[in-house]
Amino acid sequence: MRNHQPHTEIAVRHGLRTSAKTRLNTSQRVDPKVVLGSQLLQLSGVELDQAIDSELMENPALERIDDYEDPLTINEILKTVAPSELKPSGENYELTRSTPRDETEPDWIDLTSSVDSLWDHLLAQLRVRLPDHLWNLAIYMVGSINERGYITCSIEEAALDCEMALEDAELVYAALRECEPAGVGAEDLRDCLFLQLRNATTDAEKLARVMLRRNWEDLVARNKRAISRCYNTAPEVVDEALNVILSLNPFPGESFAGHSSHAVKERTMPAQPDIIITLEESGFLIEVPGPSPIHLRVNPAYEKRRKVLEEKRSADPAEKRHVNEFVDRAQRFLDALTQRRQQLARIGKYLVEHQGGFVKTGEYRFLMPLTRSQVAKDLGVHESTISRATAGKFVQIVNGDTVGFDIFFKPALRVQRMIEEILESENPNNPLSDERIARMLEERGVKVARRTVNKYRDRTKLLSSRMRRTG
């Protein structure tokens, strides 16, 4: 069932471009644009700001228009990338020869990044492990690794999207899980810890590996007595194995040199919306706040130098290669940033069309059942794309509330919020029972059992009616 808004007009701000071009690439070489697009899509606004600042520092061919003051001249570019072309001739030679050289002048190579990203690091390892015909699968799976090091797609999805056999996808997945940092490519926390003990050598490490496989519930509950009875061993031995598990890294991706914990710290701050939906006289307005590609551009001097080198037969191959590398990298970054904004805008438009009642009022009873796979199918993209675009992100709806994307895809959250709304308006002197709450939910179109209400109430740390009574 859909919520139809009469004469609804969808508008998008910040210079979003639409493109109907489709590029087919059947070669076996890595396509950096695919990986970069996946990386930027899953970043929050704060993380994207950090990524842009990092790219501006590492790539001299990319510049921020807001901070743009004096344009670089050709001589300034040549002074960095081709100082030989600035050698004087004739009457200026003696003067220049006697002029002291600036030994601090940076070399072109010094401008390149010395730190690979997690994804670059993984692709480099897989490059020497896999044959060429499996490379597209490798790119797909590496692009599905989030910043914590966990994989966000299934083997079946990778095989279907890359039009490859399931056996090939399993082979690539196994190779990915053998890469460093240890634990990368895991499906969940348990799997991640288990991978880090794949080369267990000591007795404590071997026991820890077995405990992860067979005693996960007891580990979570720290029930050392039950584990000791299970293996008929002393509690001290179990303690040693438990210490091994506690020393493992639950998020191997964040420990990589190219990633910091700043993003995680930022996420503890008040949520900043990644999509803002407002309602104006002309209809719904969708805004994607934050960094925009219209505030960045490829340095014109670098583009001009590139054209000169293309027309020059005697151009230095090293200079030409480096200029092309930085200009191409800058353009890929701008394209990926544009693609991210377009994808978020499309998702915002989809929410308006399919969840209009909730988006307008903020009342959870208007939420319609929705899945990421349904959104992906309707928008013509893969489910993993929707997962990256929505994971850890937030939407500001018309009434000003900022909600996580999970609220649209997890029915349990909808019921929990509706229970919270009911309890907020109850009479504290005569609190509602779970059975009464269940009947009120049914009146609002949500049929759940009394024990389900009790479970959701416990999950959200809400007290029972007896404990809530104040009179």
What are the SSEs and their pairings?
Blueprint: E1 11-12, H1 32-41, H2 45-58, E2 62-64, H3 74-81, H4 93-97, H5 118-127, H6 135-143, H7 155-161, H8 166-177, H9 189-196, H10 203-214, H11 216-220, H12 224-231, H13 235-246, H14 262-266, E3 275-280, E4 283-287, E5 296-298, H15 300-311, H16 317-354, H17 356-361, H18 372-379, H19 383-390, E6 394-396, E7 402-404, H20 406-409, H21 411-424, H22 434-443, H23 450-459, H24 465-468
Parallel strand pairs: 1-4, 3-6
Antiparallel strand pairs: 2-5, 3-4, 6-7
Helix pairs in contact: 1-6, 1-16, 5-6, 6-8, 7-8, 10-13, 12-13, 15-16, 18-19, 22-23
Structure description:
The longest helix is centred in the last third of the chain and has 38 residues, at 317-354. Among the domains are: 198-247; 411-468, Arc Repressor Mutant, subunit A (Orthogonal Bundle), CATH 1.10.10.60. It is flat. It has helices spanning 32-41, 45-58, 74-81, 93-97, 118-127, 135-143, 155-161, 166-177, 189-196, 203-214, 216-220, 224-231, 235-246, 262-266, 300-311, 317-354, 356-361, 372-379, 383-390, 406-409, 411-424, 434-443, 450-459, 465-468, and strands at 11-12, 62-64, 275-280, 283-287, 296-298, 394-396, 402-404. It contains 24 helices and seven strands. The protein has 471 residues and is mainly alpha-helical. Helix content is 51%, strand content 5%. Helix 22 packs across helix 23. It has a five-stranded mixed β-sheet with strand order 1-4-3-6-7.
